[in-house]
Amino acid sequence: MPQFSFLTTGVEVVNAFADQVQNKTGPSEGGIGAEIAISLAHANQFLIILAGRTEDKVKLVVQKIREINASVRLNFVRIDLSDQASVRRAAKTVSAIVEKIDIIINNAAIMACPWSKTNDGIESQFATNYLGHFLLTNLLLENTVSVGGARIINTTSTAGAGGEVYFEDVNFKDGKTYVPVAAYAQSKVAMLLFTAALASRFDPQKIATFSVHPGNIRTNLQVNLQDPAAFKSAVEWVTMKTGHFAREEFKTLQQGSSTTLVAALDNTIIGSSGCYLADAQIASTQPEESEELADRSLSRPFSVMPTHSDEVAKAQQPVITKASAGFASPKDFDEGKTEREHKLTDAQREVIFSSNLAWSHSNEASNDFRSDSYTKPTFPMLEAIITASLGDGDTDEDAATDSLQEYIANLVGHEASLLVASGTMGNQVAHQAALRMPPYAILADYRGHFHHFECGGAAYISGAQIRQAVPANGHHLTVEDVKRESVLRESIYEVPTRVISLENTLNDGARLWEAVAAGAFTLHEIGECFDSIQLCFTKGVGAPLGSIVTGNKAYIERAKWCRKFLGGAMRATGIIAAPARIGVDRVFFAGKLKEAQDKAKHASDIWESLGGKLSIPTETNIVWLDLEASGVGYDDFYPLADNHDLKFRDLQIGRLVFHYQISDEALRRLCDLFREVLN
């Protein structure tokens, strides 16, 4: 696949694949659809079918195409996607024009419009943005299947994040509970599901299908959000559902058309049929709504679509692959049995909707590089707390806590686990539970977090000597280092090593999530190497509080005593467990840690390209700038953070920690700061 990016234009994509363009149908009048058609005019001779409600609106598009390439054959087909009868007529017309179709691009949409229903009795956005495309595509499947190598491209949007398809009520109680942006999100999630359904049905060599997000582009699509009140309502809804409102940088129409054209023309991505593309390349993960809807059944027709139930039944199959693909779980672990859905009533949602709660301000962490523990909990976590069980955690009577403990134990392949209040408590509990009769020592990396930044708790509380080992390779402890530094013999002069405490990544055991996200191993694979593991739910995965300790049943029983001794016995622990589960499922398993790591790597690459030096190579989400070796003094760096609206911490000089809420804009400002201090 050629190297495309946010800035790639549609013409650049077409020029890269000019000899592959053949017969195509799909662009609607104006906006991105028109730009896609105009870009395609730069390819060889082929046929474009321009579909729209009125021919007058595509005359200018036709004129531009003719000016670029007079050999392109053009046909106009009238279609109103909100009217199923019109869609059926259009399908017959297209079939009469051409027997075989190489590419279908389902792009046309309306957005956040006032409540209305179509002639078929369906909410307008759902009918136009999804059902119209769904029906047209199914009616033309015979034309595409016969081709071999055909493509179906479905336009979706990041506005669908946090959305869902209300299978039993796509009409929002006939408008009574209608929220414009929620209806738009519903239609875009449906398009994601439709893409996955098609990918599950067809050999990609016959039909490959992709979901694409063109980006944030100024077109008449946003006309209904120009009213300040409407825009505010949309922002509040997105913030409530996802925990933040990210303002994407605007693209030009040409840049906006590029992702669709990559999906339509690049033969190297056929094997990834069903995936999601953004910024002219395959995105690292599916949007999180694919995970949330993974277990929904798509095997039955919607009750509001009696006029084409045959097509629905034919096209809709169980479709979604878990967003956790790539993160191996134990073979005998049935993820579906332990997942819990957290739902609010409409009345509760309405109260939250109208409130300016701190939970809606997760974007406040978008510029915070102090630590990945500075993420802000999100609205889905609040929703989980509100609906959590409230049993006594100290006496093992809380359902949400029991479910989480079983879930994590299964993920790492251990017999049991124990929820604790914090990572510091988790470390102390884990060590104390492993130490029996003194004297005893804990062997650890000399840079270890637990003996540098936890007030000497292991020595003070457990009475353990901390033996600090220096890695011979300067990076990480090896078996040879451990053998060299351990005291395994019984001697009246020496303190025997009873615990070997290893930390990842970059000397903080709480960030094991990051090592897994980087592809070093799976949770189950690392679990086989250790008697006990401590995992933090705040660092990285972004829960408001909580950590968990895993091990065998006997070890966890002793850990309960240690937790009690440290004052960690808690009552309604469901309010800790429920948001922690959301963090694991929607941040870790949704691939968001890897996205943060990619930003960290980008930042370190920029730093080095400007002549800066690193103390440690950037392997996960932490960048270690060697300010001294780079010729940069403390006062040349840290005071400038405020000038660029960035938050740094000097507890460890040169350390910058990335997390999933760091924004692209903050990354840009950070790189600007790098340029300022190094130039």
Automatic annotation (TrEMBL):
<dbReference type="GO" id="GO:0006545">
    <property type="term" value="P:glycine biosynthetic process"/>
</dbReference>
<comment type="similarity">
    <text>Belongs to the threonine aldolase family.</text>
</comment>
<dbReference type="Pfam" id="PF01212">
    <property type="entry name" value="Beta_elim_lyase"/>
</dbReference>
<feature type="domain" description="Aromatic amino acid beta-eliminating lyase/threonine aldolase">
    <location>
        <begin position="368"/>
        <end position="507"/>
    </location>
</feature>
<dbReference type="InterPro" id="IPR002347">
    <property type="entry name" value="SDR_fam"/>
</dbReference>
<dbReference type="InterPro" id="IPR001597">
    <property type="entry name" value="ArAA_b-elim_lyase/Thr_aldolase"/>
</dbReference>
<dbReference type="GO" id="GO:0006567">
    <property type="term" value="P:L-threonine catabolic process"/>
</dbReference>
<dbReference type="GO" id="GO:0005829">
    <property type="term" value="C:cytosol"/>
</dbReference>
<keyword id="KW-0521">NADP</keyword>
<dbReference type="InterPro" id="IPR015422">
    <property type="entry name" value="PyrdxlP-dep_Trfase_small"/>
</dbReference>
<keyword id="KW-0663">Pyridoxal phosphate</keyword>
<feature type="domain" description="Aromatic amino acid beta-eliminating lyase/threonine aldolase">
    <location>
        <begin position="508"/>
        <end position="628"/>
    </location>
</feature>
<dbReference type="GO" id="GO:0008732">
    <property type="term" value="F:L-allo-threonine aldolase activity"/>
</dbReference>
<dbReference type="InterPro" id="IPR036291">
    <property type="entry name" value="NAD(P)-bd_dom_sf"/>
</dbReference>
<dbReference type="InterPro" id="IPR015424">
    <property type="entry name" value="PyrdxlP-dep_Trfase"/>
</dbReference>
<dbReference type="Pfam" id="PF00106">
    <property type="entry name" value="adh_short"/>
</dbReference>
<protein>
    <recommendedName>
        <fullName>Aromatic amino acid beta-eliminating lyase/threonine aldolase domain-containing protein</fullName>
    </recommendedName>
</protein>
<dbReference type="InterPro" id="IPR020904">
    <property type="entry name" value="Sc_DH/Rdtase_CS"/>
</dbReference>
<dbReference type="InterPro" id="IPR015421">
    <property type="entry name" value="PyrdxlP-dep_Trfase_major"/>
</dbReference>
